[in-house]
Amino acid sequence: MFAHFLEIGSATELAREVAKRGMHTPRGNPISKNFLYRMLNNRAYIGEAVHKGTGYAGEHQRLIDQKTWDNVQSILQQSPRLRANSTRTETPALLKGLLYGPDGAAFSPTHTRKGDRLYRYYVSQTVLKHGAGKCTVARVSAAEIEATVVSQLRSMLRAPEVVISTWRAAQSATEGLVEDEVREALATLDPLWVELFPAEQARIIQLLIERVDITTDGLQFRFKDKGLVLIATEVNSLDTKRKAAAA
User: CA 8, CA 152: separation in Å to the nearest integer?
Assistant: First the structure.
């Protein structure tokens, strides 16, 4: 919770994320924003006992290191509006460093604000350096192109030929891994996607995609075989641990 709050910077967004994962309080209630605020300010996590607002060294071990605690408190001391603006601005750009235009120039993430609304884009480096009109595609909506790429990626994970090629490549990395396990691992990632934190989604995109080119016919993808193997083995290992714990 503390680590993800540092990534997101918003208790409201964090509450939404944990709700998607079906997480609850020890009493079985939904985790609210107020619950998160109380937890993030609870000095018991750094090994202290609090009496009448004053913290004293407790007899239990700390669960949160001092640097993480200090960074969280620094964010909490900002005004809610400032935190919200910062959170929206720092939403991970899924295609950062991966997107290229028709002329081969890279596209960089940027944003503009109109009132309280934030609009994210990817802009051609050609346009940034030489001005508008120097590239047939000047900029694209970040939300639209990211949604298209994610949709294509999730479809690819279900393709039989991808499962087989990933399984063959993974055999050298994971002894005894069978094709059905790879198929199950890739299939598991698809429905889990919406439950992942934005930073984790960005990590997976960077692992799986080498390059996305904007062409006159649409988008062309170049995938990383090693990334598929790594994700498949990660998901398979996690699933094996879950099954062992359930047993």
Answer: 26
